[in-house]
Amino acid sequence: MNKTPKPELMDQDNPEWTEEMFNGSVRFTSLPESLQVKLRGRPKAAVTKERITIRLSQDVVDRFRASGAGWQTRVDAALKDWLNSHPLV
User: Fold this and answer.
1) Alpha carbons 25 and 65: distance in angstroms, whole number
2) pLDDT digits over 21-51, tens only?
């Protein structure tokens, strides 16, 4: 980019890259495997959950939300518990 950016639009924490920065950069795939693993983020869980949309009664949602963080996990546990005591035919 040959234009001079407006100073008020410059991001001091994330400046535009210079030619020198580009020349000093390396490809992600050329980094050691151990560093690539760290930079990739959280690994996928062995057992994942399915994202769905479900409509629940407001009083049910309110009660679970009132129990604090992790309320959706507790809804999941309550449904699992109900399935264990009510086998589907």
Assistant:
1) 47
2) 999 999 999 999 999 988 888 878 888 889 9
Give me the amino acid identity at 72.
Q
Number of other residues whose CB lies within 10 A of the CB of residue 84? 8
Terminus-to-terminus CA distance in the chain, angstroms? 67
User: Is 74 exposed, middle or buried (CB count within 10 Å of its CB: 0-12, 13-18, 19+)?
Assistant: middle
Measure the CA–CA gap between 72 and 56, rounded to whole angstroms: 12
Dist. CA 86–CA 89, nearest whole Å: 9
Query: How many other CB atoms are there within 10 angstroms of residue 75's CB atom?
Result: 18
Residue 59 identity (one-letter amino acid): D
With a CB cutoff of 8 Å and minimum separation 6, the contacts of 65 are: 71
